[in-house]
Amino acid sequence: VDWVGTDDDCKKLEVLLSDEFIGVDSEWRPQLTQIHKTKPSLFQISGAKNAFLIDLVSLQKSKVLDETLTKIFSNPTSTIIGFGFSSDIEQFARKLPNLNFIKYVKNFIDA
Q: Most buried among 35, 40, 67, 81, using CB within 10 Å?
């Protein structure tokens, strides 16, 4: 598992462009209410052989991260798979407006 916490680290994610299936999940800081008042803070993304933890607190305004994830999410030869990730997508749109990669998902399964 590789940590992605800087713009330079984002280049590591490009290895996922060759994967047919990519798993994703996101995490928030703990809270005691049902409604998410906090932003997603950690994004997990992995392929068959590579897994990454992305620090969204540090990279929430990163153009490099957004461009890299847009390449991965819009890749027509990959399928993005999440579990309950549709609600995460809504939170990304509302809480992390500088990260637009979620608008470009080509193939997506929400298991």
A: 40
pTM of the predicted structure, to 2 decimals: 0.89
Q: What is the mean pLDDT of the chain?
A: 91
**In terms of Cα–Cα distance, which of 74, 78, 80, 95 is closest to 27?**
95
Ramachandran angles phi, psi of 40, nearest 5°: -55, 135
Sign of CA dihedral 3, 40, 26, 12: negative
DSSP the chain: -EEE-STGGGGGGGGGGG-SEEEEEEEE---SSSS--SPEEEEEEE-SS-EEEEEHHHHTT-HHHHHHHHHHHT-TT-EEEESSHHHHHHHHHHH-TT--GGGG-SSEEE-
